[in-house]
Amino acid sequence: MLLEKYCFDGSKKPDLKLLPASGREDGADKKQIIRKTADNQTRMQKLQDRLYADGREGLIILLQAMDAAGKDSIVKHVIGGMNPQGVDVYSFKQPSREELAHDFLWRTSKCLPRYGKIAIFNRSYYEDVLVVQVHQMNRSYRMAERIISQSDRQFFEKRYGHIRSYEQYLFENSYRIVKIFLNVSKEKQKERFLERIDMPEKNWKFSHSDLKERAMWEEYQSVYEEVIFKTATKNCPWYVIPADQKWYARYLVSEAILKTLREMNPQYPAMPEEEKRLLSECRQALLGENKLPKAVN
User: Fold this and answer.
1) Can you tell me whether residue 245 is helix, strand or coil?
2) Which of 23, 94, 95, 163 lies at a CB distance of 3.0 to 4.6 Å from 28, suitable for a disulfide?
3) Are strands 238-242 and 7-8 parallel, antiparallel or unpaired?
4) How far apart are CA 213 and CA 223, in angstroms?
5) Does residue 234 contact residue 222 with C-beta atoms inside 8 Å?
6) How far is it, in rounded angstroms, from Cα 111 to Cα 25?
7) How many other C-beta atoms are found inside a 10 Å radius of the C-beta of residue 8?
8) Are 240 and 6 in contact (CB under 8 A)?
9) Four-CA torsion 171, 126, 59, 247, nearest 10 degrees
10) pLDDT tens string for the chain (297 positions)?
11) What dihedral angle (degrees, nearest 10) is formed by the CA atoms of 108, 113, 117, 119?
12) What's the per-residue H, E or C state across 133-189?
C-alpha cells in the first residue's frame, strides 16, 4: 500500500531530505489521483455518518507543517466535504496568557471532540516541542524551578514522554488520532510565499515573520525529524505526506483518514425489538392513514 511508505510508527527515524516532497517519485497521474480523492471523500462521508450515529469513538485529525505547506487547503478540500455538524476545526496559534497559565496540553484538551464527532487540529500541542524548542522558549515559561532547572534535553525528552502517554490515554479512552506532517520543500515554500506577496487577494496570508521562521529551516527540519521519531507509536503513527503538489497531498491525507475510519468500523445503532415493532406499526398507520400509535415510555 502506497500510504505505508509515508507512515512512521517509531521503528525508524524519518530523513526529510530523502523523503519525497512531490508525487513525481511515485509516478502519480494527476487526473487519476483526483478521481481517487473524490472516491475517498464519498467513502469518508458514509463512514462519518455511521461514526456520528454510532457515537462511541471520536476522531482527531492533527495537521503540522512548515508555513505554506497547505494545511488550510487540506481542511477545505479533503475534510470540507464532510457533514459540518460532525466536524469542529481548531487553529492553535501563539498561546494566550490564559493558556500559558496552564499545562501545555490544556488548550487542546478543551477541544477534544465528543464521541461521534471529528476534530481538526490545525497545529496542536506539538507546537510546544517544535517552535518552543527551535526558539528555546522553554526558559521563558513561568514554571517551578525544579522544571526550569532541567537541561533542554531533559525538558523535551520528558515532553515527548508526556505526549506519548497522552495519546495512548486518548486511544484507550475511545479516540483515534491521525497525525499528518505536510512535507513541503524549501523551494516550493519560496514559490508560495512569492505568490502571497504578488497576489493582492493572498497578501493577508503573508507576514514578515514568515521569513524569520524560514531562516531557521534546517533547525526546524532537524527538530521535526526527532519529534516524529520520538512520538510515533503503533497506535498513533505519523504520516509524512509529500506536500509540493497539493492534489497529491490531498489524496494521501484522504487515504490516511479513510484507513483510520475503516479501522474504527463504526456501525449504525441496532434498534431494540420493541422499537422495531413500533416502526412497523407506524408504517402501517401511515399507509392506512390511521391514528399513530402512542410511543412507549
Assistant:
1) coil
2) 23
3) antiparallel
4) 13
5) no
6) 37
7) 21
8) yes
9) -130
10) 689 999 999 999 999 999 989 877 778 899 999 999 999 999 999 999 999 999 999 999 999 999 999 999 999 999 998 999 999 999 999 999 999 999 999 999 999 999 999 999 999 999 999 999 999 988 778 889 898 889 999 999 999 999 999 999 999 999 999 999 999 999 999 999 999 999 999 999 999 999 999 999 999 999 999 999 999 999 999 999 999 999 999 999 999 999 999 999 999 998 888 888 888 888 888 888 755 556 555
11) -10
12) HHCCHHHHCCCCHHHHCCCHHHHHHHHHHHHHHHHHHHHCCCEEEEEEEEECCHHHH
Sole residue written with cell 505526506: 241
pTM: 0.92
Q: Tell me the three cell numbers of residue 112.
A: 477534544
Amino acid 110 reads K
Quote the CA–CA distance of 265 and 62 in Å, as a whole number: 20
| CA-wise closest residue to 261 among 1, 58, 21, 7 | 58
Asked if residues 77 and 195 have their Cβ atoms less than 8 Å apart, the reply is no
